[in-house]
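Regression test case RT-17, inverse folding.

Input:
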């Protein structure tokens, strides 16, 4: 039995779901989900549990990231879908590069899945080493404040 797109994306019980730029060619795969197609309702609650972003350019990706980053939590799932090299869609995104902004924000790729014959998606997670450094800095500040 082949996996569904939802299985491939490890979508389980997440409640605050953002799927932005969903192509009509695979929209029917998501019909059973309740999700926001734009960020506005999720920004009010300031939390996204699962985000799947379809993008064709690095500029478009960076613009979307600027909007959604404040609403992502540490444990949120972030997927970025882009056209496969074999698709006929013009793109400047590829597997080896194009992820500079996410790297700068402390994210690293953990998985690449094929969604269909046109789209593939990278899963990004917050780099645990970066989180540990931030936690240590916060812990030191708390200790200093308590010592005063």
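Golden output:
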């Amino acid at each position: 039995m082949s996996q569904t797109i939802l299985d491939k994306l490890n979508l389980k019980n997440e409640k605050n779901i953002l799927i932005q730029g969903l192509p009509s060619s695979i929209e029917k795969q998501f019909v059973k989900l309740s999700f926001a197609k734009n960020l506005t309702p999720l920004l009010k609650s300031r939390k996204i549990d699962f985000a799947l972003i379809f993008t064709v350019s690095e500029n478009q990706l960076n613009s979307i990231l600027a909007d959604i980053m404040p609403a992502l939590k540490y444990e949120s799932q972030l997927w970025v879908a882009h056209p496969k090299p074999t698709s006929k869609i013009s793109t400047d995104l590829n597997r080896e590069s194009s992820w500079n902004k996410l790297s700068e924000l402390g994210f690293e790729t953990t998985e690449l899945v094929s969604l269909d014959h046109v789209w593939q998606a990278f899963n990004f997670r917050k780099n645990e080493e970066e989180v540990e450094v931030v936690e240590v800095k916060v812990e030191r500040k708390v200790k200093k404040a308590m010592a005063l």
